[in-house]
Amino acid sequence: MTEIPITLQSDENGYFDRECPNENCLYRFKIKLKDWEDKISDDEVHCPMCGHIDTSDKWWTQEQLEQIQEVVSSYALSYIQKELDKSWKKVAQSTRNNKFIKITYKPGKRINFINNPIGQSEEWAQEITCEHCGTQYSVIGSAYFCPCCGYNSASHAFEESLDSISKMLSSLPQMERMFSESYGDDKANTMCRGMLEGTLGDCMSAFQKFASCRYSEISGSVVRVNDFQIVKKGSDLFKAATGKGYDDWLSPDEIDDLNVLFQRRHLFEHNNGMVDQQYLDKTQDPEYVVGQRLIMREADTRDLIRLLKKLGQGILTLS
Ligand SMILES: [Zn+2]
Ligand SMILES: [Zn+2]
Q1: What is the rounded CA–CA span in Å between residue 257 and residue 251?
Q2: I need a labelling partner for 121 at 20 to 30 A (CA). Which of 159, 188, 271, 304 fits?
C-alpha cells in the first residue's frame, strides 16, 4: 500500500469542508483544519446535524472527491513504475502519518503525482467552539453535535432559534408592507398574522429540543420531546432528576404566564386558535370564553422568548 500525499488547504479562516457520509443527511460543515489534524480521532467523527458517527476517512465532499480523482488520475498517468519502486520507501515514510488518503498500490500500474491543492468553498455563517473539547467548526443554520467529541450543543441551537424568531418579529411590519404591495392589504395582514401566530410554536419546538437534550444528558435516560410541551411535566422531570425544577428559576407568576403561552400555542396549532373548555380549564385565562378566537400579540411571543431564555439559563446550570 502506498499513500499519495495531498495538500489539504483551508479557507482564509482556517476551515476545511466536510460532508456527512450518511446518505439521508449529507450535511455540509466546516472544521478548523488544525483541529481536524490534531484532535479528530481516526475512528470517530460526528455529524453536527444528524449525529452519525463514522471513521475519519469518510467525510469528503463531492467536490473534494472529484479533485482527488483528478490527482489520482494524473498520478497514475505519469509515474513510471520503475521510479515509483525506487522512491517507494521514501514516499511511504514521508506519508506514513497521513490519515487523509490511502491508495492501494498494485505493482504493474503506473502512478504519478501532480499536487493539486484541494480548495475550499467560501466562508460560512456560524462559528462554534465546542464547550467540551474546544474544536472549532462552522455551519449554516443550527447544528447539534461537535464533530470531534459529539457533544450536543443544543444550547447553542436553542439560543440561535430564539434570536432568529426575535429578528423575525422585528421585521414583521416591514414584511407586511412588502406583502401589501404584491397581494393587497387583506392578504398581507392574514399572512403576517399567520406568521406571528406561528412564532409561539417555533419557540416551543426550540425549547422542547433543548430541554429534552439537556434532560437526557443529565439523567442518562430519554423521554419524549413532547413531554416538555407541558410546563408541569417538564419541570417535574428535571426535579426528579436533579432536585431542581422550573420554580427554581421562574416566579409563580412567570410559571403561570408560561403555562398560558404554552396552552395558547396548543390552541393555535390544534384548534385554529379557537378557545375551548379544555384551554380554560388548564389556564384559568380570564380574558376569554369558549368559542372566541385568541388574539395574538407580538408582546406574547416576546414574553415567551424572555421566559424561555431565563428557563434555559437555569437548565444549563444543572449537571
Ligand atoms: Zn449527518
Ligand atoms: Zn467537542
Answers
A1: 10
A2: 159
